[in-house]
Design a protein that fits this description.
Blueprint (H helix, E strand, L loop, with lengths): L10 H25 L4 E2 L5 H14 L6 E7 L4 H16 L3 E7 L4 H6 L7 E5 L5 E6 L4 H16 L1
Parallel strand pairs: 2-3
Antiparallel strand pairs: 1-5, 2-4, 4-5
Length: 157
């Protein structure tokens, strides 16, 4: 029966809404899984932005020379512990690489300045103090080592 101002709904409408929401959630999960932990190249910025980034990195403890892996983490982050294990292995196995873990909750200015949206976020900083790669999520160890080796070779020259 039709009432004024009400639209009759078919039982199929609810099913279509559920199927649509599941399709969107599946697409988002697939997209996130493909990006999670992958090292992305950081686009070059102008000298002023590079100076600001260098100042922020220095404020959290990054020192020039060698390659530094900067991990932004938080106390309640389970993937942060897995990331720390991977980064510890890399720094132990590859000479010339330092690890710096930054508590995101205590360094909110750095989090904002470096555009960190989630933990863990890993920044690969070269010998000149530039962020050259970044990953959100647990990075892939082999990809990380493959990224670091050329940076170390360039720093040795």
């Amino acid at each position: 029966m039709w009432h004024a101002g009400l639209v009759a709904q078919s039982p199929l409408t609810g099913v279509l809404v559920v199927v649509g929401v599941l399709a969107l959630a599946t697409a988002f999960g697939w997209w996130r899984r493909r990006r999670d932990g992958r090292l992305r190249v950081v686009a070059g910025t102008g000298p002023a932005a590079a100076d600001e980034t260098s100042a922020v990195l220095a404020a959290v403890g990054v020192r020039p020379g060698g390659v530094t892996l900067v991990q932004f983490s938080s106390a309640v982050c389970a993937p942060c512990r897995a990331t720390r294990r991977i980064l510890d292995d890399v720094t132990r196995d590859v000479d010339g690489v330092r690890l710096l873990e930054v508590d995101a909750e205590h360094h909110l200015d750095a989090v904002r300045a470096l555009d960190v949206w989630r933990t863990p976020t890993v920044l690969v900083v070269d010998a000149d103090g530039r962020v050259v790669r970044r990953a959100s999520g647990v990075p892939v160890r082999a990809e990380l080592v493959a990224t670091i080796r050329p940076l170390l070779a360039g720093a040795a020259r």
